[in-house]
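> @MW can you paste both from yesterday?
MW: sure, first one:
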Amino acid sequence: GLDEALLEITRTELDSPTDESVDATEVGLADESLLVWNKDTQAVLVERGRVSLRAYQHMAAGKQYRFLEIAGQPYRALYYPYSKSGTQAIALCVVPSTSLENALQHITLRIALFGMLSAIGTCALSWGLAIRLTRPLREIVAFTAGIQGVDQHQRLPYPSQDAELIAVTDGLNTMLTRLESAFAAQSRFVADASHELRSPLANLRTTAEVALRRNSPEIHERALRLTVLEVERLT
């Protein structure tokens, strides 16, 4: 917006009279300053305004917007080539950019304040989300650490309605179900093995005790045959 206004000011100044009859008081009170020089001879054609621009005459050869600091004050400058009555000239028009600097500082302060508030809000939100997410996980850890053996009826309750935690809970409960089935199968195997071993061992013991009490080769042979049969059964 400042550049558009500066371009309009430059064009208006260039269209105004260039003679010496301009009111000096009006020129001295103007915010903008103008310097026009011949592009070929560098001779100054027009000079208006409260600040001297001759020191900045040769800083650009074509149309260009720049920031200049003149006498410690910020200005927005436009180098504007133009042709009039066959003369190639360059105009330098400047306007104070103090209002722009103030606006930029105001915006910068607002952005910094907004960024600080956003950072605080983000930290608070992240802390709340972290607590909300880790509390169910701590409950899951406490539950699994408290499992003693395998309880046929012990299952992990759902600590949260979040889909991810529900999936984790379902996975742990499925694992507990499989472990329960495995331990049940192991218990059945141990019981069946104990039952299957008890009878042959009892028969072997009885046969050996009877053979030891008798001094008959026939009984000893029969005891040995029964022993072989029971051993085959055990195998």
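MW: second:
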Amino acid sequence: MHSFVCVFIGEKMTEQTTGQNTSNPLQKYFRQPKLHVRLPSGGKYYPPGALDLPESGEVAIYPLTAKDELLLKTPDSLMNGTATADVIKSCVPQIKQPWYMPSLDVDALIIAIRIATYGEKLTITVKVPNVGNEKDFEIDLNTVIAPLMSATFADTIKMDNMTITLRPLMYTEITKDSLRSFEEQRVYNLVNDETVSNEEKMARFREAFNRLTDLTVETVAKSIAKIELMDGQVVSDPKHLLEFMQNTSKEFYTKILDHITEQRDKFGVKPFIANTTKEEQEKGAPETFEVPITFDQSNFFV
């Protein structure tokens, strides 16, 4: 039942209905999904409430809005990951909490958003090795995203009578670790600082190196969801897992790290193989060379 409010205008009384939703006549012109994709993770590893995955297993990809484009041009937002999280929430609304999406899905979703907004082709400008002249290459992003969609995350390995279950890091964990690493690496700017003594430089370098080493071990420990022992005991306490990785053998640690790196690389974007002309080869250029595909906002989202 509607409630009515009496409004007096001069000597006339009119009735207005309150609590009634007014639909926007322009709503049918709002942006629509341009494509639907399966998540590389298959929807696994999301915490409850972070993903609303349809029965089809595919999420809708919307093109960027003007606000999204502005976010991608804000250096601070790019640095701390806010821009990427906000853009994915805007363009992939079925991901309710982008900060908690597994790292497996990040690159694939960024590429899908780029395709939905600007199309399947990406032109990149690079310098030809040993020649130096700049040259444009056109990349079909469908060939870039396809390997990410078909990759499989091997989350279980057996070592030393243990069954180790791994998990991909969440986007929030990756961002925080990257920022910490960046801050520690800034210490190397001291190399050319003549106001700082060599003794102080060495002390700061040593401290930064130790902190970076600790960060690496912490990251590996966070990638372990649980360890099951032969007697059936399951260890999943993050503190216990970290303590174990800090005190295990170098061989055991290296095997875990290598496996994690191998899984991560499966979901990373492979470089583009560029071909050169005979004329360029006569000037010293190789027949082919690798071109890294980076999500540089100056050329990827334009």
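> thanks! The CA atoms of residues 40 and 149 lie 5 Å apart.
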